Amino acid sequence: xxxxxxxxxxxxxxxxxxxxxxxxxAAGLKVVRAGAPSxxxxxxxxxxxxxxxEAALRCVQLGMPRRARVLLVCSxxxxxxxxxxxxxxxxxxxxxxxxxxxxxxxxxxxxxxxxGDGVTRGPVVAVLAGRGGAGASVFAAALACTATESVLVDxxxxxxxxxxxxxxxxxxxxxxxxxxxxxxRLSYPALRDALPRRDGVTLLSAGRVLSGSGSxxxxxxxAVSAVIEAGSRAGVPVICDLARRPSAATEAxxxxxxxxxxxxxxxxxxxxAAAVTARWAEEQNPNTxxxxxxxxxxxxxxxDARRLIGRPVLxxxxxxxxxxxxxDCGGLRLRPRTPLARAARKVLALVSRRPELAxxxxxxA
Length: 365
What we know:
The chain has about 375 residues and is an alpha/beta fold. The protein folds into two domains: about 5-115, Response regulator (Rossmann fold, 3-Layer(aba) Sandwich); about 125-350, 3-Layer(aba) Sandwich (Rossmann fold). The protein is built from 14 helices and 13 strands. It has helices at about 15-25, 40-45, 55-60, 80-90, 100-115, 135-145, 165, 190-195, 220-235, 250-255, 270-285, 300-310, 325-330, 340-350; strands at about 5-10, 30-35, 50, 70-75, 95, 125-130, 150-155, 195-200, 200-205, 240, 260-265, 290-295, 315. The strands form two sheets. Strands 8-9-7-10-6-11-12-13 form an eight-stranded mixed sheet, sandwiched between helices. Strands 2-1-3-4-5 form a five-stranded parallel sheet, sandwiched between helices. Strand 11, helix 11 and strand 12 (about 290-295) form a beta-alpha-beta unit. Helix 3 packs parallel to helix 4, helix 6 crosses helix 14 and helix 9 packs parallel to helix 10 (about 250-255). It is globular, with a radius of gyration of 21 Å. The relative contact order is 0.13.
């Protein structure tokens, strides 16, 4: 749904109303005030949302899904409670008023531009391995290949380069070591033209860092946010393959994702490791689900995986014969009836509906 031209203001502190009114008027937008969003449609349809700490916690309790252009406002330097509220609701920016009116004006001006685009935002999916070797990078690539057009972001500097998974290592275009992004708003067409492409997938991959090389795959959080925003704003699904360790870049991607997927193999130890990863991921984004990959040597089923990990199972897939050889000889090629393709289609169909998994029961058939 395209956003309306209104700013939803959920702010109890009346001292913040005058500076908010000034900035919203300068941005040419209308104000809709409420104590809480009356529905998810209203929450999703606003051009931007301004809230304070108390309202943020109410929205979390109501199960409002994460979305772009949510800003937490406060009248003084934020303390731990304000930061916790911002993380809980998925706010992308925290603004002190009236000191930072100019920053708020810039954010709302971008919201006004986006409101006129008439383009539904593309979903953002973050993919993590529950345990090393679970196949998260392959599943992220499969999700990207399943969409008609997508952006695939390699968020793992230690992964060796996601272009190898797609067999796109010789495709021309920039990799992370070639980019110098300081954040800000990026043009999706310009980004697409600068990066390697393979079968509709625009890929931002880590490069190869060879022995003695001076290059680096270090990724800045602001750069990740800018790339994700560019793809999603253009209506394109953005798939992020993330490192299984805390970093500013990983947490930036997790915070804005519509859905976080943990990929795990179907054995007890892997599920136990995935449970630890799930707890960390949920601190950034509670909308987290599991994809379980077979075989299950002890007969572990989806219900068992859900019980061990504590998150809903979105898809379960059988082994895919010959996948290792395929990845070494030309890269991933999805055939429609393979287990990997079926699981990717199922998850992509789910995320297109912007699901809220906080209270979900078992989802896999």
